[in-house]
């Protein structure tokens, strides 16, 4: 036990991997045992994360830091640690994974063993991405995530799964190899080190920053996804099994925004000044365009997928506004989107398991037969469109409040996104759940089962908790986002943007990493 | 040549012991062929494997305590030679192991087969320890002559005959280029010794022999280009790889390529790298074209052997990415190339071993569509193939990723950033064809019945060793890296 506590973060990262090995050793005919083991392991991870949360101080520095020489001859270290934001995303990962496993309890019936092995491998990858402080290590985890998700979509997905899986893989791979080239170059100019903290302190040249930021930004923008790199997302989300969609929307997309938060922006502040208008424009386009396209989707799952593009646009808007409130809102919005969109995908899965269709037109009037499911769906819908008192309101409000101060025009256009989201979500709810039940199949459907209560209840609780009492969450990330802003605004403090500056004029502030 | 007069024969014998062991094993297996009655007797492959094992052990011991004065005549018995020779021996052992079930399934186990593998291996030994252009030529010829025969060994198959003939004609052509290059270099420099060439090349290049010397170097490049199957000298590779017996394809794609690359590396670090910008330009263009052609052509292949052939062309391109870096940073680039060669051998041999396992029925099954449903029926085989393909693609944490990373890092350090950008884009492109077998194995359910008999132990051994190494050295490359660093 002492060993676990003294290496708490590493234990959290590799516990799912250990669980994967156990699951591998169980003969595949014992399906129930495999489900139980992976459930227990993922819950154990959640418990350890809760412990980590309890011990977290929130200084803005990296806590629970561990450094072990991995390939010392080329200066590669196993270096992990968390700040408030990373911890929040780790908690989100640990929270959603058991829910995804529980949601697949009846849905996944073929190759049960392989499914759980991949989910656990995926969890290790995701946790590693959020905890890595060595850029090489980060890249390794980043790529590790790709493979299980590819298989999850490709094996357990619906009709068009093969094309969707391939599209997902090629898009992500194309971005990440560019990032690899950038990492190689950055490390060679930063004296061969891969340590993120060292990189924070290194002064990259102006042109270097432009190119490096470009390469990192493309990799992350594909993952977020930002328009115009979003085309893989609707396919992948729609074809993936419920658990895959939940993890994809809930966590994998956050890897992109987290990448901006942790790497692209604080490392290359000069490029941030230069590219901010472009990134903000793309974010706003994403907000409006994602919403408009979501409106006309005939397929519920596709609608939710496009809504993600819109929601993630708010996160990007918040990050690139470089305003303290907006950044806090953006980080909170990462978690909020994980909860509400995750829940939406879960419920679409529940509807699908009852009716075996995702087409809006096939439903109508199911509120009468499924009162509880409808109530839950409406609640999550309210959360998703940002009703005050629920989680999304806090995040979106902070983002808009903050960005109005620094980027008024962009924020003004983004407001329309809030309205659009209300339209497409409520319109969809109306067509699916209310009205007359014209189709005979919709009259006799079983309502929520006990297992499904357990799947939804934790998410709904947190939707209320964050919505009603957001203060502790903000306090936790406050110092970290401040550190992020100090690093990312290293230019603006010296010279009024966007006058081109040479690096000699830029001072590295002492307080930051 | 003054060295010959003072040559110490005991020393030569001592240093070349691993080479001589392989030679002895070859001779024994040829002689035993006359005595062994039944064709598929295990005696000869066991003799071959034993010879390889002894040679391996002796070489490893030599690597641990290298001689202070490694140059003997035309040979250089340094750690580089020993390390690469270890790789070559391992590849030869894999080829022998895979051949046992392969030939048995075709009832065509001829005893001379294994002796030829050993002779070819011996040629590679000369190649990797060559300190002189003439020894390089002799090594390449010894190596290739045996492989010509082996490529056409299944003489009842038209494709095999075609492969042998094609390989022979192209190989002879390449040897002629090589020899002409050596002649021109000798004409302009007055020596074929690599070390002397390295010292004198700048002097020659500024003198009146410049154009002859450069022409000779260009011919040499063409010769090596043929041997490592670099574009535009690659056209033989897919047909030959496809037509040859699969274990021989493994042998050609791994051992032959490694040996040729290391000889190229020796020439590169000693003589070529002083040719300056010209050498950089030629190799940069060569690397880009080789990667592009290999990857683009691999995308459209329906036959897994051909796909792997084009993939090995693409990998030759990746290795060439580090060659221009030899000018500024010979040590770093050399190490990266060595590491990559090692990882390339592991993953390629592993992938081909799966192809051998597929073809153990009555006929050769090399269509990618035949893999359908493999994930369900042969989960271990499918998992192993996926691992090798992902490693070839360069997904962490496999050895293929670290190898590629290390290769590209040295290129970036020497300032070839755009070359690396092109290389990584190629790498992303290769995802398309490396993923196809995985799609077929796991995402499609196959109708065709697969042979359900248990896997052959020899194939299992090869798969186990290669897959464990691919995963282990991918996650913990530090030890291997230390060995490589001490070898170059």
Outline the structure in words.
The complex is a heterodimer of chains A (513) and B (488). Chain A has 513 residues and is mainly α. Chain A has 19 helices and 2 strands. The C terminus of chain A is likely disordered. Chain B is globular. A two-stranded antiparallel sheet of chain B has the order 1-2. Chain B is 76% helix and 1% strand. By secondary structure, chain B is mainly alpha-helical. At the A-B interface, helix 6 and helix 7 of A face helix 18, helix 19 and helix 21 of B.
CA-based shape of chain A: globular
Largest interface (CB < 8 Å):
A-B, 33 and 31 residues
Side by side, the strands of the main sheet of chain B go 1-2
Instruction: Quickly count the helices of chain A.
Output: 19
| Major β-sheet annotation of chain B | 2 strands, antiparallel
Radius of gyration of chain B over alpha carbons? 22 Å
Span between termini of chain A: 31 Å
Q: What structural class do the secondary elements of chain A suggest? A: mainly alpha
pLDDT averaged residue by residue of chain B: 89
Give the structural class of chain B: mainly alpha
Percentage of residues assigned to helices of chain B? over 70%
> What integer is the average pLDDT of chain A?
89
> What proportion of the residues of chain A is helical, as a percent range?
over 70%
* Topology order of chain B in helix (H) and strand (E) letters: HHHHEEHHHHHHHHHHHHHHHHH
Taken in chain order, the helices and strands of chain A follow as HHHEEHHHHHHHHHHHHHHHH
Low-confidence stretches of chain B: none
Q: What amount of the residues of chain A lies in strands?
A: under 5%
